[in-house]
């Protein structure tokens, strides 16, 4: 039900814009706090298998402003901001915006205080009955698949090289 409610015309249109913005950026900086740190880490983990231009900012939010001040002009910030919104996330997004960096916002409500600073927003439905990351995870997987398809030649080569190395180093089992 949440997935069906999330999939609307705005999400579809903004999804394409987000992938274009990611493709054109020199680096993707990812930020999530509290339970949404897990979604930021998940995006980094999936995309990082074949896309090397990623920085995770969620690990140490004490130095978040230091990191944002080091952004180059063509770097972007992908931020997960869900209710209850944290002041650290809001202020980090404001700083990136003030410095002229594009912000991709993944959020739950159009009342999110970060929306005025976002270049593009992907809004997903959230459950009022119980906590669920399902719509966010589905969105992350769709983004990763689309970015992978658009950079397929390079992505496939990197994934093959990774698999070969993991087998050689006995990290994964192979027949």
Strand segment count: 5
Mean pLDDT: 90
Alpha-beta classification: alpha/beta
Q: Roughly how much helix do the residues carry, as a percent range?
A: 40-55%
Low-confidence stretches: none
Distance between the termini: 40 Å
Task: Please report the number of helical segments.
Answer: 7
- The whole-angstrom Rg is 17 Å
Spatial strand arrangement across the major sheet: 2-1-3-4-5
Largest sheet: 5 strands, parallel
Order of helices and strands: HHEHEHEHEEHH
Shape: globular
Strand-residue proportion: 5-15%
Entry keywords:
single chain, alpha/beta, 5-stranded parallel β-sheet
Task: Please give a quick description of this structure.
The protein is of the alpha/beta class. Helices cover 49% and strands 14% of the residues.
What does this structure look like?
The chain has helices spanning 2-6, 9-24, 37-48, 64-69, 87-98, 134-150, 152-168; strands at 28-32, 54-56, 76-81, 102-107, 120-123. It is an alpha/beta fold and 175 residues long. The chain has a five-stranded parallel sheet with strand order 2-1-3-4-5, with helices on both faces. The model has no long low-confidence stretch (mean pLDDT 90).
Secondary-structure blueprint of this entry?
Blueprint: H1 2-6, H2 9-24, E1 28-32, H3 37-48, E2 54-56, H4 64-69, E3 76-81, H5 87-98, E4 102-107, E5 120-123, H6 134-150, H7 152-168
Helix pairs in contact: 2-6, 3-6, 6-7
């Amino acid at each position: 039900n949440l997935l069906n409610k999330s999939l609307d015309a705005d999400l579809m249109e903004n999804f394409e814009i987000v992938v274009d913005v990611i493709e054109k950026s020199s680096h993707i900086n990812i930020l999530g706090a509290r339970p949404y740190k897990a979604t930021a880490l998940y995006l980094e983990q999936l995309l990082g298998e074949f896309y090397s231009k990623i920085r995770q900012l969620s690990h140490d939010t004490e130095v978040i402003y230091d990191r944002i001040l080091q952004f180059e002009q063509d770097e972007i910030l992908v931020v997960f901001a869900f209710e209850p919104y944290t002041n650290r996330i809001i202020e980090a997004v404001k700083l990136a915006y003030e410095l002229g960096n594009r912000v991709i916002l993944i959020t739950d409500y159009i009342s999110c205080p970060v929306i005025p600073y976002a270049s593009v927003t992907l809004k997903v439905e959230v459950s009022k009955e119980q906590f669920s990351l399902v719509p966010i995870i589905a969105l992350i997987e769709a983004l990763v698949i689309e970015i992978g398809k658009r950079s397929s030649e390079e992505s496939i080569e990197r994934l093959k090289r990774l698999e070969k190395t993991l087998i050689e180093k006995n990290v994964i089992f192979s027949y």
